[in-house]
UniProtKB/TrEMBL annotation, chain A:
The keyword Transit peptide belongs to this UniProt entry's keyword annotation: no
Span list, region ARC ATPase binding: 26-63
UniProt keyword terms in alphabetical order: Isopeptide bond, Ubl conjugation pathway
GO molecular function: proteasome binding; protein tag activity
Complexes and interactors: Strongly interacts with the proteasome-associated ATPase ARC through a hydrophobic interface; the interacting region of Pup lies in its C-terminal half. There is one Pup binding site per ARC hexamer ring.
Organism of this sequence: Kribbella rubisoli
Cross-link (Isoglutamyl lysine isopeptide (Glu-Lys) (interchain with K-? in acceptor proteins)): E69
Annotated domain remarks: The N-terminal unstructured half of Pup provides a signal required to initiate unfolding and degradation by the proteasome but is not needed for pupylation, while the C-terminal helical half of Pup interacts with ARC to target proteins to the proteasome.
Upper classification of the organism: Bacteria, Bacillati, Actinomycetota, Actinomycetes, Propionibacteriales
Name of this chain's protein: Prokaryotic ubiquitin-like protein Pup
Pathway annotation: Protein degradation; proteasomal Pup-dependent pathway
Region annotation (Disordered) ranges: 1-41
Signal peptide limits: none
NCBIfam families referenced in this protein's UniProt entry, alphabetically: pupylate_cterm
TrEMBL record, chain B:
Source organism phylogeny: Bacteria, Bacillati, Actinomycetota, Actinomycetes, Propionibacteriales
Pfam family, one: Pup_ligase
The family this protein is said to belong to: Belongs to the Pup ligase/Pup deamidase family. Pup deamidase subfamily.
Gene Ontology molecular function, alphabetical: ATP binding; hydrolase activity, acting on carbon-nitrogen (but not peptide) bonds, in linear amides; peptidase activity
Organism: Kribbella kalugense
Regions annotated as coiled coil: none
Domain of life per record: Bacteria
Name of the featured protein: Proteasome accessory factor A
Amino acid sequence: MAKDGGQQHKQPKRSSTEEEVEQVEASEDVQERKERLDEDVDSILDEIDEVLEENAEEFVRGFVQKGGE
Amino acid sequence: MSVRRIMGTETEFGISVPGQPGANPMLTSSQVVNGYAQTQPLARKTRWDFDEEHPLRDARGFDLSREVADSSQLTDEETGLANVILTNGARLYVDHAHPEYSAPETTNPRDAVVWDKAGELVIMEGARQARLIPGAPQLNLYKNNTDNKGASYGSHENYLMRRSTPFASIVRHLTPFFVSRQVVTGAGRVGIGQDGAAHGFQVSQRADYFEVEVGLETTLKRPIINTRDEPHANPDRYRRLHVIIGDANLSEISTYLKVGTASLVLAMIEDGWLTDDLSVDRPVTALHEVSHDPSCTHLITLKDGRKITAVQLQTEYLEQARKYVEDKYGDDADRQTKDVLHRWEQILDQLAIDPMKLSDQLDWVAKYKLLQQYRDRDGLEWDDPKLHLIDLQYADLRPDKGLYYRLVKSGRMQRVVSDEEIRMAVSHPPVDTRAYFRGRCMQQYAPQVAAASWDSVIFDLPGKESLQRIPTLDPLRGTKAHVGALLDQCDTASDLVRTITGGAAG
């Protein structure tokens, strides 16, 4: 799947101030979380693809109910 | 009062035979109910007792004449259609063209969820049994409310209220609450308008099928406030508020908050706590508009001219409820009342910021997020059959096919009750209402139970010419504390009836 190609994880340099290190680590967290979420979306859609009724149009058209209550 | 009161849910399930849209739904519904009845062979002969049913009695103080009533309103005439009274105190039967599960009376929101979810297992089992019959068609059951072609079927809530509360104040304070609560309790729907002809997603399954503000009907010209007045309890003390404006929820949190918040609002109405007039201008239109806006930013116009969102309108009720509970109980409020208030607040806060973050809690958001993910991946428009299929299949009761169940299985939906509790509730009644007496009677004496209903159990005893009717008019009697030991001691129905009537039964 398509990912932002340009965002390589930066290794914090030894000379960085603590603040910069934290910022880089924070952005890594965000990136990792985004990847995890993307993978999560992929996996749920893959899973649902497998169980969806095959002919959507016919299946939906055939679902006819009478009113109730 | 708190979130605790006598309450219960009723659900009519969608039913279909793939490839046979013309299959007779009365027949297929009967197959599901009779399929379940086969698992309860002793209970098969027990009839429903219609003695105390008054579907044409109106809470505004008059009876609709039977001649002018629509035949679908005459629900007290025996139709000969399948009917089973379950050992958990519920009623399973065919209502018009759907299998319906009416949960037993419970005393609190959490129990209402447990016995509501037990109904899903009951229907699943009935369908499984029906499919086992040689030559039987493949039956699919759905916990939803519309076929998106013009037909809607209900999921109702029932709340026992004080008779002394003026009906006008119920209408006044409940209508704005019902117009706005769908942002919490909606089940989500693909399609706009009763026949789904316009394309798009909306928050509620049911909103488009409501056409008037107050009325007795449930099948045509559906009203936001239903006035059916069948208390199934002492009519001098109680009314049963029959709520027909709600979606069938699969999410436990949606059901829990649906009944929990309604119960709190009713308590405030009963105690005269609500004084602000939040009346909505043209409430039926507002109901539709709120449903058609999944961004939850639509502004509702109140009669006093204010314009606020549905979330803000719900927040007005939440804030009143907080003050009310604080005033009545302080820190001594029971845990469920505190929990309902806490969850309600969290959800309303999140709805105001980003509704999509609630995809692991609310039905409509879970469904909407899934649909949006498909739209993003496959570039689908709202008229795409695949999106309609996802809407439908979210509510499919087959555990392997139902998308709600798939989300639960993969840990994507939060829950409030456990599988174990739900399984127990399939065969066991709640212990703290009269459903306990009814359910235990069906467990122990089913062959001698000629009929039963919410407010009676009727025995046909050997050696007795007349039937013996045990009234159960008080929903809070017949509990385990009240009759548990008695039922333990009585081996036969004759023993029980003799003990209850003091040996006087003739």
